[in-house]
Amino acid sequence: MNTEFRFGKKRFYDDQRFKRGFSKSGEFTLLESELLSLYGDTMQALNSGEIMPENAEEQHFLLVCSQQLEPESKLEKVWMKYQRLTRSRRAFHTLNSRCKAASYETDDESEDESFISDDD
């Protein structure tokens, strides 16, 4: 990948949302997780205004972040994916549902009561 984009001053991590790392989260490919680790520090600093863009690629990145342009490079796409995942609430799926369990118990209880009342 030939890029003018600056490497981060340090490896980028997000221990709050991706405690086990980007690559083990199941959300990012190995390439995406490596790009985030290497360039994420710079992308975050650019996006937050901590540093200023030094070239056309970094300027384009800022336009993508402000949603004035569509992401084109792999770096822009992975950053937008990261932003989408960190800003949205994660869906939580369970194997059981209280509503169904409650309705089964109610149905069983009513059948038992009607069975007992028929014998009386």
Automatic annotation (TrEMBL):
<protein>
    <recommendedName>
        <fullName>Macrodomain Ori protein</fullName>
    </recommendedName>
</protein>
<comment type="similarity">
    <text>Belongs to the MaoP family.</text>
</comment>
<feature type="compositionally biased region" description="Acidic residues">
    <location>
        <begin position="105"/>
        <end position="120"/>
    </location>
</feature>
<dbReference type="Pfam" id="PF04219">
    <property type="entry name" value="DUF413"/>
</dbReference>
<dbReference type="InterPro" id="IPR007335">
    <property type="entry name" value="DUF413"/>
</dbReference>
<feature type="region of interest" description="Disordered">
    <location>
        <begin position="101"/>
        <end position="120"/>
    </location>
</feature>
